[in-house]
Amino acid sequence: MSFHDIVARALHVFDPEDAHGWAIRGLKWGLGPREGGPDDPILSVTLAGLDLPNCVGLAAGFDKNAEVPDAMLAAGFGFVEAGTVTPLAQAGNPRPRLFRLTEDQAVINRMGFNNGGLEPFVQRLKARKSKGGVVGANIGANKDAADRIQDYVTGLTRLWGLSDYFTANISSPNTPGLRALQTKAALEELLGRLSETREALKVASGADYPIFLKVAPDLEDGEVEAIVETVVGAALDAIIVSNTTIARPDTLKSTFAGESGGLSGAPLLAASTQVVKRFHAAAAGRVALIGAGGIASGADAYAKIRAGARAVQLYSALVYGGPGLVTRIKRDLAARLRADGFTAVEDAVGAA
């Protein structure tokens, strides 16, 4: 265990949200880990036209305000997703709203898209634009927005040219009514307006950027297929499977298991990986998939890839594994790929 991992473990004596705040401050002060040397070439992948040095990304939620994307790239992530950012700053839900389920290696959050708003986010991305590395923006809607779809359009427009990709987050369970955007008619309207805006921005700027959709794991029969067809119809580039779950497995042991909000971490792994398989079957190669939910080891990442994901994202496991976890995951994943005779991540996608 590295020094940085020991410090991360020591932060567990503090309230989870306060500890996260201190972690962000430490990274801003330059105290985070720095992975030396290039990535193992077997882990490189092209995702929606983006050349990633490795396929292990940082999920949205860790760096809500785009304060430390470069520190997390330096720690070893192949790409970093900042946000969720909403047009206007908002405080989110009342505290406490973040809970460690230590016995379950899990987290429950009901943060409610707390963030500083688009303008500070824009300025930070402008300031780092020349630094390289793939940094995406996860965009959302304000809780009290009169037109939530317009909020996504606003985020896309304001951040165009500053972010390497965009993710429309319609799957957080902590903004009332947000997941209703996953229903067919609402999703068609949202993606239609994003697609129209994208085309206009392409013409005006001469540049194009990938757009992803982040979905929930709590999907009924038929919903996966409907989402895929809508995404393909709108020419989006990838689907992130998945966000947190509102389900509560019977196996949870923590006293916080009954808290409301989205559950992430180890208990989400199996269920979210099954949803990746469902999306892989429905997509039939027409849209790329990014696997998220419960990844805490190279074996977990490999399971997502074999289920159909071209890249993976994690966040909650850092709470327990520390910032050195990403290096351990990459080392293990590379070994597993080679052990099974694969020469690249792409060769293993959907192998299960």
Describe this structure in words.
The chain has 352 residues and is of the alpha/beta class. It has one domain (3-348): TIM Barrel (Alpha-Beta Barrel), CATH 3.20.20.70. The chain is built from 12 helices and 13 strands. The chain has an 8-stranded parallel barrel with strand order 3-4-7-8-9-10-12-13, surrounded by 4 helices. 50% of the residues are buried. The model has no long low-confidence stretch (mean pLDDT 95).
Core attributes:
alpha/beta; three-stranded antiparallel sheet; 12 helices; 13 strands
**Domains (count):** 1
| N- to C-terminal distance | 32 Å
- Could you say what the CATH topology is called? TIM Barrel
As a percent range, the share of strand residues is 15-25%
Kindly report the spatial arrangement of strands forming the biggest sheet: 3-4-7-8-9-10-12-13
Number of beta-strand segments: 13
Give the low-confidence spans: none
- Number of contiguous helices: 12
Give, in order, the helices and strands: HHEEEHEEEHEHEHEHEEHEHEHHH
Biggest beta-sheet profile = 8 strands, parallel, barrel
